[in-house]
Specification:
Helix content is 42%, strand content 17%. By secondary structure, it is α/β, with parallel strands linked by helices. The strands form 5 sheets. A 5-stranded parallel beta sheet has the order 5-4-3-10-11, with helices on both faces. A 4-stranded antiparallel beta sheet has the order 6-7-8-9. It starts with a strand and ends with a strand. The protein binds adenosine monophosphate and zinc ion (ZN). The site of zinc ion (ZN) has 3 residues, from loops. Adenosine monophosphate binds next to helix 1 and strand 10.
Amino acid sequence: MLKLYNTLTRKKEDFKPIDPPHVGIYSCGPTVYDYAHVGNLRAYLFVDILKRVLLYNKYDVKHVINITDVGHLTSDGDQGEDKIEKSAKLQSKSAWDIAEYYEKAFLSDVAKLNIIEPTIWAKATDHIKDQIKLIEKLEKKEMIYKISDGMYFDTSKFPDYGKLANLNLEGQEEGARVEVNQEKKNPTDFAVWKFSPEDETRQMEWKSPWGKGFPGWHIECSAMSMKYLGETFDIHTGGIDHVPVHHCNEIAQSESVTGKKFVNYWMHNNYLLVNEGKMSKSKGNLISMKTLEDKGIEPIVYRFYFLTAHYRSKQNFSFEIINNEKLGWDRFIQKFLDLGQNEGSVDEKYIETFEEFINDDLNMPRAFSVVHDVLKSDLDDFDKRATILKMDEVFGLGLKDMKVEGVGDIPDEIKSLADERLDARNSKRFDKSDEIRLTLKKMGWDVEDTQEGYKLKKI
Ligand code: AMP
Ligand code: ZN
């Protein structure tokens, strides 16, 4: 039975989808104003592992990731500039070009990391009508009000507000004093529609029943998730930084409109830290996939490193750590390719242990320890390979197609000598087969007879 940790109930629960074998997942996607940093990418590796575990358990997954290309302001408190328009000004490009460029860069990172693409990429600017419709429904229910810079959701009208984060609202009011827009009725109220400034033409703006402007950041996720996955769906993911604001707001908007529970399982990945601090732009400690590649670290090494920590634990990043992971990866691949290219049969005993770990809230570090156990075991090399490849359906390291030049490759000359030896042996010309065995040995290869034929091993 698959168990997943649910942020909403604060415990591990047996996973029960609404309509098995179908599972709907919505993941908060990137804001495309800059390259994704490796902390952001941790959020998508986590979702990819979640999805692979569901697929491994024979579920049929419908996955939606949004692309935020408008409306995410520099402060989560609905203040400041739109991140995309700010980046456009800094780079003297149009906001549309900025969004398109960084979206492409993100898709390229996703591909390099072997992340399975979602069923639907949902872009905020492609769903403006859906967002306006949702805001209209909120207006009908008298959940929103107007102030000078936009339409705001009144959180005091949603009794369960903040439940996901266990928010202490009184504490929040005091803490929020400095940042809070004084026109808001409650500090936790948030914008669903922002008006374009009167003295400025925004590059991205739309007409709406409330005036020209653009959607607040949170409304896109409610509108697009419910559009594609229904009013109540199975799993919603994101980084833990989304718990106190973004996800509490998504719940408030969605449940106020439908009167139904929005999401059954909320799942959040913990932070990637750089020298014990959160990786973030303002700290100037951003590392992108390109930074890694420029330093000779292949993206797959980052995926390998990701598997060494549980998604709910903080994970510390440094170049020293990732360089060590690279050495670990090279050693592992060498051992794996040394098993040869033939597949034997999957060992059920090791697979059973592996399944226990992956189904225990995606415990990848423990699941990967089973790979090491298999390598050390006395299983036949072909069976080791088959067992590890089965597990790689979840790890997603692309081991099946893995070939490192010079490692694990058997030269044609050696293969044909081994074939010749097998022929000799099958026709009981043992002197000849022994002679070829000796020749192979001199050339640095050991040949072993097996049920399937033979196995070659580098000496
Ligand atoms: P953003 O592009 O800022 O909207 O973030 C994209 C995703 O990355 C979200 O799910 C965030 O919660 C997540 N995220 C941001 N910073 C980190 C970090 N340092 N470690 C892990 N996840 C992060
Ligand atoms: Zn979201």
